[in-house]
Design a protein that fits this description.
Radius of gyration: 19 Å
Number of domains: 2
Strand content: 5-15%
Strand order of the largest sheet: 1-2
Mean pLDDT: 75
Helix content: 55-70%
Number of strands: 2
Shape: elongated
Structural class: alpha+beta
Low-confidence stretches: none
Order of helices and strands: HEEH
Largest sheet: 2 strands, antiparallel
């Protein structure tokens, strides 16, 4: 049974909502439970993909984090682009078959 692209899209949107809802409280709980002696330098970053352009933002000075986010943003862009192209080809094929 093949998974439809709409199902995959719905799952990705659902994960985009669920992951922050789970991780943000966990991060907050871990920072509250640490003592001042164990607090170390923290690097935070994030990537937002507004189709078709990945937008990268970072907090901190870690250049490895910026590079990682840029790579992940472009990988996400390529995944979206592949889904888009596959959808276009499937629709074109259905139109040709219906005539």
């Amino acid at each position: 049974m093949a998974m439809r692209l709409s199902t995959i899209g719905f799952i990705l949107i659902l994960l985009a909502v669920i992951v922050p809802v789970i991780t943000i409280p966990l991060i907050l709980l871990s920072t509250i439970s640490t003592t001042p002696q164990t607090i170390s330098k923290t690097e935070i970053g994030g990537a937002i993909v507004i189709f078709p352009i990945p937008v990268i933002f970072t907090f901190g000075t870690d250049s490895e984090l910026v590079t990682l986010l840029a790579i992940l943003g472009y990988i996400l862009f390529l995944v979206f682009l592949i889904f888009f192209i596959v959808t276009l080809f499937k629709r074109a094929k259905k139109r040709r078959e219906s005539y």
